[in-house]
């Protein structure tokens, strides 16, 4: 059975993301692991900076979290009574990243689902701090970020933004390839060159990508002399693409000073679901 890790803060955005994921997987046997993390007066388990609250306060917070999770579970169990889905609830008095890593070790989910604000007009809110933290710190599981109010109507076309600057392995694209096959969704490999053209190294890496995607329907597209985030958004918006995907790379300290990771830039144009993949070898 496929396992999907769903993160919820009980907001409307997160519940919309769960509905999106349920609809996208309605024909498959799935276990949705619903994870909520909480703190008590700034305290999380193992904290070195905050004193632990009295036990009754911790128990009260846990009961409140579990009650809210069960309410969501009961709602979707009724709504999804004719599907092949199971729902598991987990509440943790942990830091969010620690709680996610715990579930990755225990359950090895196929993908992490998280809801985002979407296009709010305030760019810093489009991708919230939790979403950014997850994309930066979770390296061994695909992450699917769903904008608010987004409804699943099918994946008719998937954009794969790629600069051809990295050596890839087939496993880096495994989730994307499976998604493409499952939904019969062609992959549009988009390269944006701010200066124009491909170097010999990029041409070589493009050939590798082509071989990896050989079992999918895919085409190649090039935009030149435009900023990468703007180019991705304009390309996807003009074609009514359903999903933007890219492989996140591990940024070192100098790169972090010089460049914003792509997902931070894309937050400015967050109207389309974004799939963050990860390289198998991050060295």
Please provide a written account of the structure.
With 283 residues, this protein is an alpha/beta fold. Helix content is 39%, strand content 22%. The model is unreliable at 119-127 (pLDDT under 50). It has helices spanning 12-24, 55-79, 96-107, 123-126, 129-137, 174-183, 200-212, 228-239, 253-258, 262-266, and strands at residues 2-7, 30-37, 85-92, 111-116, 143-147, 158-161, 187-193, 218-224, 243-248, 274-278.
Record the SSE blueprint:
Elements (H helix, E strand, L loop, with lengths): L1 E6 L4 H13 L5 E8 L17 H25 L5 E8 L3 H12 L3 E6 L6 H4 L2 H9 L5 E5 L10 E4 L12 H10 L3 E7 L6 H13 L5 E7 L3 H12 L3 E6 L4 H6 L3 H5 L7 E5 L5
Parallel strand pairs: 1-2, 1-4, 2-3, 4-5, 6-7, 6-9, 7-8, 9-10
Antiparallel strand pairs: 5-10
Task: Give a quick precis of the structure.
The chain is of the alpha/beta class and about 280 residues long.
Strand content: 15-25%
Helix content: 25-40%
CATH class (first level) name of the largest domain: Alpha Beta
Do you know the CATH topology of the largest domain?
Rossmann fold
CATH superfamily of the largest domain: HUPs
Average pLDDT, rounded to a whole number, is 86
The helix tally amounts to 10
The backbone outline, from C-alpha atoms, is globular
The arrangement of helices and strands along the chain is EHEHEHEHHEEHEHEHEHHE
How many angstroms does the end-to-end distance come to?
Answer: 31 Å
Low-confidence stretches: 119-127
Question: At CATH's second level, what is the architecture of the largest domain?
Answer: 3-Layer(aba) Sandwich
Radius of gyration over C-alpha positions, nearest whole angstrom: 20 Å
């Amino acid at each position: 059975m496929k396992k999907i890790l769903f993160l919820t803060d009980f907001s409307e955005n997160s519940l919309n993301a769960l509905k999106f994921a349920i609809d996208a997987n309605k024909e498959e046997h799935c276990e949705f692991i619903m994870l909520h993390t909480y703190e008590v007066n700034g305290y999380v388990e193992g904290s070195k900076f905050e004193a632990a609250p009295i036990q009754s306060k911790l128990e009260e917070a846990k009961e409140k979290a579990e009650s809210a999770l069960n309410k969501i579970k009961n709602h979707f169990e009724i709504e999804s009574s004719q599907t092949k889905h199971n729902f598991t609830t987990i509440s943790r008095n942990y830091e969010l990243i620690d709680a996610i890593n715990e579930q990755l070790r225990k359950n090895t989910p196929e993908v992490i689902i998280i809801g985002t604000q979407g296009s709010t007009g305030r760019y810093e809110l489009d991708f919230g701090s939790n979403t950014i933290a997850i994309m930066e710190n979770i390296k061994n599981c695909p992450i699917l970020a769903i904008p608010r109010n987004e409804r699943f109507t099918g994946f008719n076309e998937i954009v794969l933004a790629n600069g051809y600057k990295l050596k890839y392995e087939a496993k880096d694209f495994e989730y994307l390839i499976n998604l493409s096959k499952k939904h019969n969704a062609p992959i549009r490999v988009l390269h944006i060159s701010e200066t124009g053209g491909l170097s010999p190294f990029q041409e070589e890496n493009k050939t590798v990508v082509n071989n990896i995607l050989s079992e999918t329907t895919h085409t190649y597209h090039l935009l030149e002399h435009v900023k990468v985030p703007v180019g991705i958004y304009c390309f996807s918006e003009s074609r009514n693409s359903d999903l933007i995907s890219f492989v996140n790379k591990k940024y070192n300290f100098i790169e972090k000073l010089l460049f914003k990771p792509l997902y931070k830039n894309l937050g400015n144009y967050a109207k389309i679901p974004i799939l963050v993949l990860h390289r198998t070898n991050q060295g």
